[in-house]
Amino acid sequence: MKISTKGRYALRTMLDLAMHDEGTLIPLKDISSRQGITIKYLEQVMNLLSKAGYVRSVRGAGGGYRLAKAPSAYTVGDILRTAEGSLAPIACLEDDINQCPRAAECLTLGFWEGLADVINNYVDSVTLEDLIQQAQENNFSI
Fold first, then answer.
1. Measured between alpha carbons, how far is 85 from 90 in angstroms, rounded to an integer?
2. What distance in Å separates the CA atoms of residue 120 and residue 115, rounded to the nearest whole number?
3. What is the pairing mode between strands 64-67 and 55-58?
4. For a designed S-S bond to 124, which of 10, 65, 77, 114 qualifies (C-beta 3.0 to 4.6 A apart)?
5. Model pTM?
6. d(CA 80, CA 94)
7. Is the dihedral of CA 33, 55, 134, 76 positive or negative?
8. CA 43, CA 92: separation in Å to the nearest integer?
């Protein structure tokens, strides 16, 4: 499994909004400058995050973005799935019910299901708040 640029940027953008939340809207140009992401690409990412209800936006002069909820309410898994879709390591695990005609006799299916569980459990166990705390403990900047 490989997370695309869109997934990485969505996570970085959400984290940027969380870390720079001072109760006011954050202009897209500020996020772009801090993250080194073009405004054009950020607009696409923000569109995804806005449709998912993760960010609130106001257009025009004085406009910008902010998180719709507290950083503790967002898991990395939710953000990545919004940007990437399924995080399943193989195609036959993308649907709730495995549609593969070989599923009943597949010798490796249990392995792939286990890997999917590990991935999903991990990304769903980490929140934006956790990442903020980790960054502060290690003196990282975003």
1. 13
2. 9
3. antiparallel
4. 77
5. 0.90
6. 14
7. negative
8. 32
